[in-house]
Amino acid sequence: MEGRAPLSSRVTKILAGEGWWTATSGATTLLSLYLLFGYGASLLCNLIGFVYPAYASIKAIESPSKEDDTVWLTYWVVYSLFGLAEFFSDLLLSWFPFYYVGKCAFLLFCMIPGPWNGARMLYRRVVRQLFLKHHEAVDSVMRDLSGRALDVAAGITRDVLQALAHSRALIAPVAVVEGPPLPSEPTIAKVSVTQLQQDK
């Protein structure tokens, strides 16, 4: 241990930018171990796949460049399709010991900037091909469903309005009882003191 620098100087070097590789590999090792054995690995993995991309998406929206918008829109398309596939397979796949490490690695692969961006590669090779092949049929089905939904909503609205009008017609008007008019102001009877004494 004589040749090693004290811990404080090693931490100072890391914070100063020296030894970033050691810090990165240490953080990666801890993260991997936690994803393997830690409680809440699913939450951690979902946070990794959501927090930074959400932040980067907000920055992309606020920037004047359109290119970064496309990068993060592509990520969210792939992320949502992965989430949909995972919904149906998660119960089975979560029993595999390296599932969350693999999921986290996949999400990080989809976030990598540059030409090796996994989301862009998956979009171009899989999602775009499926979209171009089936988008007219999907648009037709969506138009049909939209028209049906509007018809159903109009029918429900019409039925509710008719039911309200019918129930209002069934309610008989309140009978008005004729009698002496009620005084508009409370009146105090004027009785003299002598009359009160005589009544006693």
Task: Describe the protein's architecture and organization.
This protein is mostly helical. Helices cover 74% and strands 0% of the residues. The protein is built from seven helices and no strands.
Number of strands: 0
Helix-strand category: mainly alpha
What's the pLDDT, averaged over the residues? Answer: 78
Oligomer: single chain
The biggest beta sheet, please? none
Report helical residue fraction: over 70%
- Note the beta-strand portion: under 5%
Element pattern in H and E: HHHHHHH
Distance between the termini: 118 Å
Enumerate the spans where pLDDT stays under 50 for 5 or more consecutive residues.
none
Silhouette: elongated
Determine the number of helices (DSSP H or I, runs of at least 4 residues).
7
Radius of gyration: 37 Å
